[in-house]
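Fill in residues.
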């Protein structure tokens, strides 16, 4: 297994509310560091995306740097066109809202976009890129 070297970074107002959706999308938990005085506050979380990357995220804090909740867009490349539909179904069951129709763009693959409860967009895509 390779060591991931590229991560999207997100902030959330309520990290615990989004974790089931992240897992439904196919992310796996690697680490969660909570505040010992307030376990609702996540200083750092790291979830892996398959073998090649992932996301790092935490609770939005006053004076923090990085993206504001609801401003991220993450492209998730799944192995096949059928995986787009399966991942979409799991995401919707976990509370995501579909914001685009399933599409088969001219450059190939199949794609659809969903949004989490705080407004971050996850594009589910089977186009592997060049």
């Amino acid at each position: 297994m390779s060591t991931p070297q590229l991560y999207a970074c997100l902030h959330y107002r309520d990290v615990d509310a989004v974790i089931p959706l992240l897992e439904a999308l196919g992310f796996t938990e690697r680490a969660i560091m909570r505040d010992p005085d307030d376990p609702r506050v996540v200083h750092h979380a790291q979830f892996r995306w398959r073998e090649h990357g992932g996301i790092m995220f935490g609770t939005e804090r006053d004076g923090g740097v990085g993206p504001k909740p609801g401003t991220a867009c993450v492209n998730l490349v799944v192995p096949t066109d059928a995986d787009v539909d399966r991942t979409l179904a799991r995401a919707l069951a976990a509370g995501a809202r579909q914001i685009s129709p399933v599409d088969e763009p001219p450059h190939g693959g199949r794609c659809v976009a969903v949004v989490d409860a705080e407004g971050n967009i996850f594009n589910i895509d089977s186009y592997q890129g060049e």
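The mean pLDDT is 92.
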